Amino acid sequence: MGELMLKTNEKPLSSNPIIFSLVRAKTLNVIEQIGPIRTVYLLMFFGSTCIGTIFNGAYLFEADFSYSNIRSASFIEVDMRRATFYKTIGKNTHFQYTRMQETNFSDAVFDCTQINTRGFFGSNLAVSDFRRARLLQCQFVYCNITQIDFSATDLRRANLTASIISYGLFDNAVLGSAILWATNLSYANVSTVQCSGSVGNISLCLFKQALTLENAQMQNQLIGAPPASLLYGEGRLHCALSVLGDTSLIANDSRWKISPANSIFNEYRFLNDKYLKLNACIFTPINQTNQVEMNHYVDLNIYKTLIQARRAKATVMCHVGYSTRVIITQYDENNKSLGSSEPIQYRWSELLKLSTTSLKLSVQFYNPIDHDQSWCRYVHLHVEVDFKTPDSQLLYPWEI
């Protein structure tokens, strides 16, 4: 390498493109060995010459790629938190399982192809800045982009499938025909997005594809509704009167199939549990000696994209008495059972099978004579994306 540099006859290294490319490739080959500080200076030395460079596995914390051309560069499993890509140009650039929190992509321009396996996949872009960036047809698939700033960003026909975009800012962003399958847009601000050329016309915004728009700021000062409850009205049991001993029949709740009929009541009772003592509203069988069941059937059609990618994770959390069990059964499109969970007493979580199209949630009071332990305080069922993005293990409150 030294001989090559001597043969430049003391001319600038960039004067001979062949020698320059060889030196650059050889130098970048040791990027993981020189430490983060030297790496940043090395990138500054090469300036805008990162075309086709493979940075896989490198540590690039706070690296500066401003004004660079990163066409066909690869950043797989790179730690580049707080990096800067201001006015960067990219095409066929690949970011996968990359740590990119608080990264600056403002005014960047990416020339993307709609059907492409390169882009942002499974990466963590939380609290990053994409203001005024041009991201036409770019891929943001299974990414954590919580609190991202997409202000005045061109996202037309971009693919945001199954990404979590909670608290995202889309001030005057262009979102026409962007794919939003299974995205989480809770608490995002999409009140001024442009979908077909003008603010106020959202005919080409595919918000109905999102899993949830809960508490999102929509146009016309509307607030996004929470997802439809898979269980009860508010996900919990309800007692009309908070009076100890008072009961009410729940036969008018058509979402539950109760067997035998008219055997389940709500009751406000003191629970003397092993770990918890409190007054609570519960489900309980009354005047029964044989097993009583409550069955709830859940259509999973809105999760089809996630299920077919084996990225749909179902989680059940419950609080039941010791003579009560909760069981989840998966069914295919022909209503054939694909198997049931073990009895759940507190928590269960599992990836849904590839051919699953519906679930049956069963609450079974198998010994109703044991009145003190035949009760169900609550059952929560969540179906969400199985995220594999780095530093994103706890994205949901029920995972804590």
TrEMBL record:
The chain crosses the membrane at residues 40-61. It comes from the Eukaryota. It holds the Pfam family Pentapeptide. InterPro entries: 5peptide_repeat. The keyword Glycoprotein does not apply. The keyword Repeat applies. Keywords: Membrane, Repeat, Transmembrane, Transmembrane helix. PANTHER family: THYLAKOID LUMENAL 17.4 KDA PROTEIN, CHLOROPLASTIC (PTHR47485). This is Pentapeptide repeat-containing protein. It comes from Rotaria socialis.
